[in-house]
Amino acid sequence: MRPLKVLHNPKEIARRVRWLGRRISRDFRGHTLDVVGILDQGFVFMADLVRALDVPTRCHFIRAEIQNITDPNTGKERREIFYTPEIDAQGKNILLVEGVLQSGITTDFLLRRISLHYPRVVKTAVCLDKPADRKVFLEPDYAAFRLASNSVVVGYGLAWDGLHGNLPYLGTWGAPAKARARRRSARPERKRRARRQARRKAHKRRK
What we know:
Layout: E1 4-8, H1 10-27, E2 33-39, H2 43-51, E3 57-70, E4 77-84, E5 93-101, H3 105-115, E6 121-129, E7 142-146, E8 153-154, E9 170-173, H4 177-206
Parallel strand pairs: 2-3, 2-5, 5-6, 6-7
Antiparallel strand pairs: 1-9, 3-4, 8-9
Helix pairs in contact: 1-2
């Protein structure tokens, strides 16, 4: 497997999480905050984030999954989101915490369902925001990092095929060494072709 390229090292992550903790604490000063973590990829980020808060905090965890079910009326399959357990959100300040926000479909569903229980406010905090993958109009209220590309990111609780979530940093796979070498070797050839084409055009104009 290709080596990982470090996007954010442990010191950068710790510094950013502390910064988020100060922002969230300021916004909820004088209130109790109910922090709801989405398993599995948000538990490491949530553990550090709640320790960076200096407001009264209650912690909850929910598990969400998308299932293919058969509609009994039409016989056609459709995808539905299920989550457990239900959160008693009435009158509470809810902070929904997720490791990575990509398509936003599951997060948007959870926000809508929690809002049905009449919370005082619902906000979102994510470790990594990947807006390039977004399928719904949704922006996190608090984000530690943002990634412009849709590259797979692992570490700090984010796993790929169940692996690499234990890494203390956020990393992604760079291009293979052979591919980089091919790109480097292709550059001089492209330049030579461009020069030959320019000479041919100049020769035709002289004729």
